[in-house]
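Structure tokens please, single chain.
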Amino acid sequence: MTIEVKDLKYIYSPDMPGETTALDGVSFDVTEPSIIGIIGHTGSGKSTLLQHLNGLIKPTSGEIYIDGECITDEKKNLTDVRRKIGLVFQYPEHQLFEETVAKDVAFGPKNLGLEEEDIDRRVRRALYMVGLDYDEVADVSSFELSGGMKRRAAIAGVIAMEPAILMLDEPMAGLDPQAHRDMLALIKKVQRDMKLIILIVSHNMADVAELSDRVLVMSKGRIIMDDGPHEIFKRYDELSAMGLSVPPAAEIAQKISKKVKGFESNPLSIRELADDIEEFRRTKR
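Here you go.
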């Protein structure tokens, strides 16, 4: 599965007083299973981009190819495309509506017209993938689950569609610390086991740093940086000028380097920072 975006442009309310350019010449491609973090200040075009990739919004101009198929072609039937692409909106648990967890997870596969045996297999596998025990939750009302479990069940419903591309819009928003850590582990597991392309929009730079193989930085509807997380987050001053933060470890390293001569570190995690500090201390003994 591949993604190719060519010169994508989208204008809200064209030729109206509130006309706004949300995407302005966006181009990038993804050619192998990986996790792509997408960051940018509010209004930079992140969520609008995800909705284009799922065919929910048609671009003003430009093209999107999913596995070589142009999904922006007006004649293209998007039903088959959407089967390959799972989109999880912010607070997906609000989309739960069936009377039991199993029925909620089975909703998508049923709409694909699958046999009951295949639906059951997908439901069991999806619940397993998100760390929920089928025997314990299958017949439970989705509304009786904890907040973190509701979100897992909602994501299981997307996974049960067996997409090749998974898009997550602020997947950790509103979670308590333990559920937050569990969700990070879940995303890593899903990507590793299902070998998906995962695109994540997030304002949490520590999460982006921990999860991403590659980071896209958006500003005013454009991609202005596209690189690995170490390379992106060492551009501290440029990100700060755009109103963006860096992972806490990178921020601490910056402050130390300004006060301690010769100290250099480009960490994404506190563990990496601790290792760099210890190495610096050894060299100075």
